[in-house]
């Protein structure tokens, strides 16, 4: 009996061992499956999250309006998100949801600014992408767990845009309104009379024209090519998204009859689209006072009229006293490009109110000019009360005179304390010593450097447009097309002064670390629209830093 019981007990223990081993294997598989499939889940979730992050950024790049529309294209946001998910090869994608403030109705979730009109500083272009992916288990299927659904969410942000638009309003911006004619300084007034008076800024600034885009807001001022510039400027504004984006406007000159050539911040940064449209439609060409035959230092340029006919805008102090060695023409030129850049920097910083500055937005300046710089702001110590205009650029001093306030060598840059040893002027047998050679081109480059590096780390992005044939003209000596300026050190031809300056401002100012823009040449007003459109598309692809 004892032997029987002993054998029975031994046999039953063997059966328990088999059961225990079986359970142990199940537990082992569960542990291996937990470790292996958990690792798989982490890998798949990381892959999904990175893909959703990319999808959110891709969708944010589509957060813009097309010209002629006031709403973003929601379908474009969704397509961009899905394309990025597919590009990253996320398998079994399901339930892709793309949200932005525009489709959230009255709920106003975290994507929205509750008061976008009255608190524009809080506006942000946010796109939220949520996507799910089904992941099948490996080992855990033994335990009956087939798969799990992972979900990831990410928010992409397109930059809010702070744009400063700088427009050339100098006298030449009305010279295509009427008939052609040679009315440059020194031309015979009897041969340059224009049969039509339309080029007179006193007339074309007052005229009005229908505005096809905004019939209730007719164009005030028909001066050409300024009117064409205003038309494409409005097209550009239509690509901005208000009230998220903001725009400011700087003009080369004052906007009042009989005004001066000082650059004007016509409008500080605003997100009010109607205000921006109103200001653009009303921009005018520089309209100085009428010439009175009296040469008054510092009075600036004036409109010359002969026998009731408009001739052109001249510098009267030079016309009356062309041989006076102390004739200072510095108050006459009206292309103070450096001064407009100073005012652009001020606008981006809130125009004196730093609470209105948005350093996290994308700071852009778009400058359009029809010629080189030939004027500056006054210096700080009073030596140049009408702006930097060294004597080596005055006709009575410069045997190679090219233009007032700008020397013949744009490739040579000077500092504001650079001087030349002396000038000898034979008519009065006088030698002038230690005279500054810092000119309007030097000043514009310095102001461009300051503007471009205004905000770190990416800097201010500047785009420039040169309008008209004068922009890419080679540097001439004394107005003689047969004598071109050559660099005294290299013997090479000097580059076109306007184009060289505009290229520098857009593509070099501030140094190599700046997020530079691009220079565009527009030979005529018909080519402007495509350039503005190209710049708008470039800006629209920017995402938040």
CATH superfamily of the largest domain: von Willebrand factor, type A domain
First-last Cα distance: 88 Å
Write down the domain tally: 2
- Let me know the largest β-sheet: 6 strands, mixed
Looking across the biggest beta sheet, what order are the strands in? 8-7-4-11-14-17
- By CATH, the topology of the largest domain is Rossmann fold
Approximate helicity band? 25-40%
- Highest CATH level, the class of the largest domain: Alpha Beta
List keywords for this structure.
alpha/beta, Rossmann fold, 2 domains, 28% helix, 20% strand
Describe what this molecule looks like in 3D.
By secondary structure, this protein is of the alpha/beta class. It contains ten helices and 17 strands. It folds into two domains: 142 residues, no CATH class; 380 residues, Rossmann fold, CATH 3.40.50. The strands form six sheets. Strands 8-7-4-11-14-17 form a six-stranded mixed beta sheet, sandwiched between helices. Strands 1-2-3 form a three-stranded antiparallel beta sheet, covered by helices on one side. Strand 15 and strand 16 form a beta hairpin. Helix 4 runs antiparallel to helix 5. The longest helix is centred in the N-terminal third of the chain and has 59 residues. It is elongated, with a radius of gyration of 34 Å. About 1% of the residues have low confidence.
């Amino acid at each position: 009996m004892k032997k029987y019981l002993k054998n029975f007990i031994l046999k039953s223990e063997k059966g328990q061992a088999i059961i225990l081993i079986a359970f142990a294997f199940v537990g082992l598989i569960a542990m291996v499956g937990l470790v292996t499939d958990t690792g798989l889940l982490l890998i798949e979730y990381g892959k999904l999250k990175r893909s959703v992050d990319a999808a959110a950024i891709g969708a944010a790049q589509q957060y813009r309006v097309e010209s002629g529309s006031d709403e973003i294209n929601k379908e474009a946001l969704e397509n961009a998100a899905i394309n990025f998910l597919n590009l990253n090869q996320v398998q079994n994608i399901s339930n892709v949801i793309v949200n932005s403030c525009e489709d959230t109705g009255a709920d106003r979730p975290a994507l929205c600014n509750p008061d976008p009109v009255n608190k524009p500083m809080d506006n942000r272009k946010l796109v939220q992408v949520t996507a799910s992916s089904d992941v099948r288990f490996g080992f855990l299927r033994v335990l009956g767990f087939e798969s799990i659904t992972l979900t990831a969410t990410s928010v992409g942000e397109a930059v809010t845009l702070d744009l400063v638009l700088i427009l050339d309003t100098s006298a030449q911006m009305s010279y295509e309104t009427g008939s052609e004619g040679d009315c440059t300084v020194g031309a015979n007034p009897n041969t340059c009379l224009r049969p039509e008076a339309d080029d007179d800024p006193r007339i074309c600034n007052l005229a009005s024209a229908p505005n096809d885009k905004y019939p209730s807001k007719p164009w005030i001022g028909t001066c050409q090519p300024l009117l064409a510039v205003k038309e494409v400027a409005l097209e550009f504004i239509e690509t901005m998204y208000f009230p998220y984006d903001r725009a400011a406007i700087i003009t080369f000159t004052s906007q009042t009859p009989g005004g001066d050539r000082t650059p004007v911040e016509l409008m500080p940064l605003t997100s009010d689209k109607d205000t921006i449209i109103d200001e653009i439609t009303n921009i005018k060409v520089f309209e100085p006072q009428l010439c009175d035959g009296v040469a008054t230092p510092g009075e600036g340029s004036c409109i010359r009229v002969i026998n009731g006919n408009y001739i052109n805008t001249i510098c009267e102090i030079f016309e009356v006293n062309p041989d006076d060695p102390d004739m200072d023409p510095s108050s006459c030129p009206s292309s103070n490009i450096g001064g407009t850049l100073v005012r652009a920097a001020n606008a981006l910083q809130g125009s004196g109110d730093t609470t209105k500055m948005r350093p996290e937005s994308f700071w852009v300046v778009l400058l359009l000019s029809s010629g080189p710089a030939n004027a500056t702001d006054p210096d700080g110590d009073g030596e140049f009360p009408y702006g930097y205009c060294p004597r080596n650029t005055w006709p009575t001093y410069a045997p190679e005179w090219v233009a007032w306030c700008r020397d013949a060598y744009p490739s040579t840059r000077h500092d504001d304390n650079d001087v030349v040893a002396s000038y000898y002027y034979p008519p009065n047998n006088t030698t002038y010593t230690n005279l500054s050679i810092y000119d309007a081109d030097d000043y514009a480059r310095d102001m461009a450097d300051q503007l471009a590096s205004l905000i770190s780390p990416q800097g201010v992005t500047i785009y420039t447009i040169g309008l008209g044939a004068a922009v890419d003209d080679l540097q001439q000596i004394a107005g003689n097309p047969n004598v071109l300026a050559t660099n005294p050190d290299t013997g090479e031809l000097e580059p076109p002064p306007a184009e060289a300056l505009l290229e520098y401002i857009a593509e070099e100012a501030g140094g190599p670390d700046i997020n530079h823009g691009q220079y565009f040449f527009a030979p005529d007003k018909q080519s402007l629209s495509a350039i503005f459109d190209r710049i708008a598309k470039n800006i629209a692809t920017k995402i938040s830093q």
